User: Fold these one by one.
Assistant:
Number 1:
Amino acid sequence: MKNTLLATTLLLTASLSAGLMAAPAEPRDGSMHQRGFERMAEELSLTDEQKAQLSQIREEERARFQTLREESKARFDAVLTAEQRQKMEQLHEQRREQMQERREGRLSRGEPCNR
């Protein structure tokens, strides 16, 4: 029972943190985020100075999150066995494929990717 609970908790934690730890299968160009930023800047009537300051904050935060993802992955890898790490990577790959299929399905139907 204890082993089952531990395995279930580990699997749940791994699947929930997959977004934090897994690098994207393909590089993202950030165009969706940029368009959102531009809309926000227009709606708030931001000055060029404000846009520059907020862009700098966004870049710093992106770097911090990348570091956090890498640190989290290293901590998980230190706990898991080689077999468990391999299985977790397979689960991540399945998740990436499912997300890509959903994204492609929306695009083929003309729906936006951001819901």
Note: The first helix runs from residue 2 to 16.
Number 2:
Amino acid sequence: MFSRFRAAALLFLGALPAIASAQSSDGRLERGEAVVRSLNNGEPQPVLERMRQEFPFLAEATQGYALGEVWSRPELDSRTRQLAAVAAFAAMGEPAFLKTHAGYALNLGVSEEELKEIVYLTTVTAGFPRAIAASQALSELFAERRAAPSDGRKPAP
């Protein structure tokens, strides 16, 4: 009798890490989804949705870890986090990511002028070529938003 109980208890205890991992993974994915929708005017993120089709592991890792674990941390507000992301992507020379996060920043109330200041700062931190690439990405984004119907909902690219 005792050995059956002990075996069942060991089996249950051995399964706990897997159960906890599944629950924490689900929670991270839910937090990641909430982050996307909060940044993108309640809409899914198109790049993430396309990635989900051909690279499901990468999409899940992005949503679960990058968004659900890191992006959802409470120490920075969303506006500050987006400004930091725009600056980082400008300095890295990643105009596509910069454009997406600049769109989120605009959705959160950051002004075009504030985003332009990040480009100017980039000349000092990363050089003129990267600042110019960032300015081109922002110019495209600004033009797209101005041309979009003004229904108040402008999801990021």
Note: Residues 1-74 form one domain.
Number 3:
Amino acid sequence: MMSRRAKLATCLVFVAATAAGSVVRAQSSSEDDTTKLAEEILSCSALEDEAARLECYDALAQPLLGLEQATEKGDAAALESFTGTDDWNSEVLEIQRPWRLVWQNSGSLLTVELWTPQEEMLDVIGNQIGQGGGRSDVLEPGSYRLAVRGLGGWNIKVVSEDSN
């Protein structure tokens, strides 16, 4: 009979492998990335300390959500960051390089719309039902406005998506 920890680790590996598989396909990476992620999840599950285990899992999830922290080498950090509750409209944002939107929602609904400076809606680039996070497709540089339509608290970041 499998222990509760072994069952949890097996479940996490399956979920991560499935999710990572989608991310890997979307980013045209090799199957080795999925195997590496599964091994890292197993490594996290072996940590005895609950706080250290959670920190390990969080560190693995950040790149999948586009939430990587800036490093000394100057990796992508947030170009813009906004936190709020319910509805909000940005001023015009001048974005000079390819970018994506990354969000965290603590409310029940979050939709982020992309608008022109002349207040014409271009697209919905973020949508979250319930608590959680996600990220948009890569968008072209330009002048934009963001419009958040939410029920509850949220945080959005504009992050550089350089193709280096």
Note: The mean pLDDT is 79.
